[in-house]
Amino acid sequence: MVEFIDADLKDSRFEHVDLRGTRFRDSDLSHARFRGVALNGAVLSGVELVDVTIYGEIANLTINGVDVGPLIDAELDRRHPDRAKMRPTTAAGFREAWDTVERLWAGTVDRARHLDPALLHESVDGEWSFVETLRHLVFATDAWVSRAILGDPAPWDPLGLPWDEMPDTPGIPRNREARPALDTVLALRRDRMSTVREVVDGLTDEALDGHTRPVDAPGWPPARSFPVRDCLLVVLNEEWEHRLYAERDLARLLARD
What we know:
single chain; mainly alpha; Four Helix Bundle (Hemerythrin (Met), subunit A); two-stranded antiparallel ribbon; 6 helices; 5peptide_repeat; DinB-like; DinB/YfiT-like
C-alpha cells in the first residue's frame, strides 16, 4: 500500500493502474478525466459533483438515495425512440433491430461524407476518430459474430481495431497509426454488416436461446461458450452507442469545417 498525504499530484497520469480499494479523502479531482475506468462498487459521500459529464454503462447508480439508472434509461428512450429496439427478445426483434442499425448508420455515414476527409481521422477530446470508430465496429463484429457465433477462430482484418484498454493478444491486430481512406473502411464495414445480416435473417427463436460452441484458439472473446442472444446484444449495443458517439463528434467537426 502506498499513502499520499498532503501530496501535490495534479496533472498526474495513471494508465493501466490498479486502484481497487483506494481511499480518497479531502482530495481535489476537479477537471480530472477518466476513460476506460471501472468504478464498480465505488462509494462517494460528501462530494461536490457539479458540471460533470459521464458517458458509459450505468446501472444501480444511487444519487442522494435515488436509483437514477431507470430514469436515465427512460429519458434516453424518449430522446431516441429506436433505442428500445436494441433490446429485442425474439428472432424477429433482432431482424428489426438490425434493420434499424443499417438505416441509422446510413444517415451517419452520409453526414460524414460532407466533411473534409482529413477530419474523419481527427480525434475529438481524445475519443476515436470517425474512421477509427468504424474500424472498431469491424473488430466487434469479427469477435462476437464471426468468432463467437460462427466459430472462426481468427476472423481479424488488419484494419480491425480493439478497444484501447484491451491487452495485446497474439494474432489480433491493433494498428492505431493506420489512416485508411473512408471508402476502404466502409467496404470492410459492408462486408461485416452483411455477415450480421445473414446471421439474423437465418435466426430462429430456438437458435437464439442456444449457446455457441467454444473456439479452441486464443483471442477475443475468450475460448468458451456464450449464449447466442448475449453475443448479438453485444453487437447491437456496440453499434448503437458508437453511432451516438460518432454523431456527437461529427456535429463538433461539422461546426468547425
